[in-house]
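Minutes, project check-in

Agenda point 3 was the complex the collaborators sent over. CS summarized: two entities, 339 residues total, and the question is how they sit relative to each other. Sequences were read into the notes so everyone works from the same version.
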Amino acid sequence: MTPEQTNLLQGTLDLLILKTLRLGEMHGLGISRRIEQITQGTFSVKTGSLFPALRRMQEEGWIKSAWGESEANRRAKYYRLTKAGMKQLETETAKWERIVLGISRTLEAS
Amino acid sequence: MTKKRKLRWLSRAVSFFRNVTGRQKDELDIAAEVSAHLDLLIEENLRSGMKPDEAERAAQIELGGVEQVKEQVRDARAGAWLDTLVRDCRFALRMSRKNPGFTAVVVLTLALGIAANTTVLSWISATLLNPIPGVAHTSDLVTVDRGDRSGYATPPFSYPDLRDLSERTQTFAGLLGYHDDYMSLTGVAKPERIFGNLTTRIILTFSASARFSAALFFRRKERRAGELQ
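CS then shared the predicted structure for the full assembly.
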């Protein structure tokens, strides 16, 4: 862990996964790498957190999965967003924005 | 919002059903996904120029244990609690079979405890919560007295008083007059002294042996009281 790495805030992993899958279908490792890339290494999603989260989100009906071939002709399970997932993304985004706004207002207050 | 919630509930229910019924297939699927993930990690490491055994080791480290990951996924699925419950029950049964002495003590303790509780609670229910048999809401019952507030209100209501009150009341669903007294019960082998209630509609008597004859006697008494006025 580099000093710049931060633990994921409770409940934000779903949001990051939803947002990542907004671009198109992706396998588990792809999602994990994408999050690392976008956050420039601030968040690294461990397999032990990623797969349970994917499982849970699948059961909520936000994402769907299907087996497919990876770039290097390897089998991999691909995840994509469902309609309910899109809506959830909107809800969670709005929620997150409210949190950020609230916290920055608090910090700015003298 | 409600529609969305309904959909989520449905989705969860379907997952729950699938998790409970399609266990084997699900296990295979989880295993396949984790191993595919491991393969992808190894390949990524190989491409970055690691040696094969080094690539595999690094991938293992990043994954953090195939079995652990599988277990974490199992915990995340709907109905995981059912799994745990079944496993706990099996464990409990196994352990109790292993220590029969302890099991006997536990079963006996529980039996005694439950028996004692049931007894006490039914006693409380019968004496404190529902002291009057056949009355649905004991808390709705009130006593109407006249005179000073004591156990023996004086002077008591007369039968015509009771009738007037019954006819004109707007507060009560109904009124019932009673009067308790010691009485002699004759006509059986040996005359018996009983303590009983003269009531206008229902009869309560405290002598088990003479219940039905007492009832007859009081009914007649009520009719006589009606004729008197």
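Noted in discussion: Helices of chain B lie at 2-21, 23-47, 52-63, 66-76, 80-98, 100-129, 159-168, 211-228.
Follow-up: revisit at the next meeting once the mutant set is ready.
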